[in-house]
Amino acid sequence: MDSTTRVLTILIILFAFAAVAIAIQFVRRRREAFPLIASDAYTAMPQVVGAGIESGRPVLIAHNGDALGGTNTPFALIAAEMTYQIAYRAAVGGVAPVMAISESTVLPLAYGTLTRAHKARNRLAGFISPDHVHWAPAGNRSMAFAALLTGMLRTHNAAGAVFTGNYGSELALPLWSATRQRVPTIAATHNIEGQAIAFALADHAMLGDEFSLSGAYLGSDSTALGGVVAASILRIAVIVGLLIPTLYIVGDEVTGGAISRLLAGLFGGGS
Amino acid sequence: MGRIATLIASALAISIGLIVLVGLLTGSTLAGLTGLVLQIAVITAAMTVLIGVLNLLILHLRRIFGRERGIIYSITLVVSFLLVIALYVLDQPDARRVVLEDVAVSIESTLSALLVFALVYGAYRLMRRRVTWAAVLFTAIVLITLLGAVPLSQLALLEQLRAWILAVPASAGARGLLLGIALAAIIAGMRVLIGQERAVRE
Amino acid sequence: MTLDQIGLIAGFVCTLLIFSYLLGDNFLYRLAIYAFAGITAGYVTVVTVESVILPWIRGTFGSGDPIGLVVGAVPLVLGVLLLLKSVNRYQRAGNIALAVLIGVGAAVGLVGAISGTLLPVMRDTVETLRPGDNAESNIALVNGFIIIGGVMCTLVYFGRIARRGPDGAPQRPRLFGRFISTLGQGFVVIALGALYGGAILTGLTILSERLAFIFLTIGGG
Description:
The structure holds three protein chains of three kinds.
Chain A: H1 3-29, H2 40-55, E1 59-64, H3 73-93, E2 98-101, H4 106-120, E3 133-135, H5 143-155, E4 160-165, H6 172-180, E5 185-189, H7 192-201, E6 204-205, H8 214-218, H9 222-255, H10 258-267
Parallel strand pairs in A: 1-2, 1-4, 2-3, 4-5, 5-6
Helix pairs in contact in A: 1-9, 2-3, 3-4, 5-6, 6-7
Chain B: H1 2-26, H2 30-65, H3 71-89, H4 93-129, H5 133-147, H6 156-167, H7 169-193, H8 198-201
Helix pairs in contact in B: 1-2, 2-3, 5-6, 6-7
Chain C: H1 3-19, H2 27-60, H3 66-83, H4 91-127, H5 137-157, E1 163-164, E2 170-171, H6 175-218
């Protein structure tokens, strides 16, 4: 990492820290001031869980990639939040979701998440989380995992399927299989190729950062909504961060380099 | 007692996160400690593969002995798993090559080939399910991307259009998507460092 | 029959089993994928034990150094604690080990997202406005503006905070915001379409290779 990147990274971290901390406090006081734009996928999610409860069939949550301890840890935590929201709703009907996980580091997190959801509903008695979590390694290009999901959809007679984590084009395989079996699907991947596949093949596809908003849409925790507000602040900062150099370059082009000379005069030209 | 354990876990996540963050960003005296912590995390992550194996064997052996639905698939999975381990323990490199290269690679690449049918079906389904402007635009771009890749002189214009789409509007959209996803990761990571992550907080 | 011939036949049979999925989800296809999952699990286990766990144990416990012993024991203890997450009664003990992984991962992920994605993408985006001094620089400059504008519109489209409409229902902020947001959606859809087309092209290449394998094997080539 070069020194400019290092300094910018530190500044962004400090800015993000302030944005998240302030936004969470603000939302705690005035939650109703931040309504969210309706999301098809998050509207459908409780309906899929509800249909599963009515038919006594589980929802399959398939999480690919995102090892804990690595750079994708934040995405693993985001997926855990979505799992919690689904399991929390499913716990009412006593039909716990079945989880398929390709990263072994996520197994303990999945056990904990399912247990927490059942505990929050006072449904912990007799619930054994490992019975509902299946580890299956991804293999190259995650094909082994994607293929196994096509089998699991049928073996577990899934009422719906939610795909979280890092899927590329291999996502087409379980989505195709789910379509053939008329299983409703929600795809919440953070891989842009996976989002392209989901756009065409999933019943409900989450695009961009939508996969990270389950807590805000489905939960009552102000922290999650605070995160959405903080993300909006950061998004504006990124837009400004793109706009300033753009104006600088355009201004320089129009004025024949006058802005560059002015700035060099003000801050001292490097020679 | 439970509350204390939760507090310890939260404090541990925050402090280790901050140590690693400072170590990575400043390269100061914490860099050595950061390196050790990262190494421990890697080895711990490797240990969890054994938890995964335990999970895999318990679930499938239970299905086999309980004669549950899908028993034949569980037998296939357990046998093939044990076969690979046995070939490693018995040091049979040639037989291992047959299983890992001829069988596994064949299955893997055939599954990749199968994706074409899924993808073509997906594009068809999209237009059949709902004809929105976004679906029409999506399908048009898919067609241009495919036809533009055909090396025919009659399609030279389409080839240029494809190149421009990939270099300009598609590139802009992809950059926007990547920035949005990166912002989501930043917020999620920050929530851990300020002790607001539910996975360690509760 | 040699081992190579057995391998060729096994690969051929497996290829056919997987392609049988085109006729519908069936027993043979599922047999092949469960075998594949088992093989992959075995391979991952062997590689992890052989290349990560054993070298660590040899390097720490095998060194005879007391500090090495302590350091070597830490991941083992953390591994056992993580295993406890599967037991309801001792779940909280597992949180300690989970906290270590989450703490490390959050920091690494944060730095990775900023220095690995955010900053490079922003920098590359702005750089599109510096086309260089060639004959096509004006076209490149226009393209650069489209890219920067597209990225901004896309970011606006991803905005989730709404304003309340006259009926109290949340809606996208104002007419201009809605226009920008729709433009952003257009850019996103174009990107997704291009990626989808690319995925089909990659798949077609692999499909032709697989079909060639089938015909060659049948023909005895």
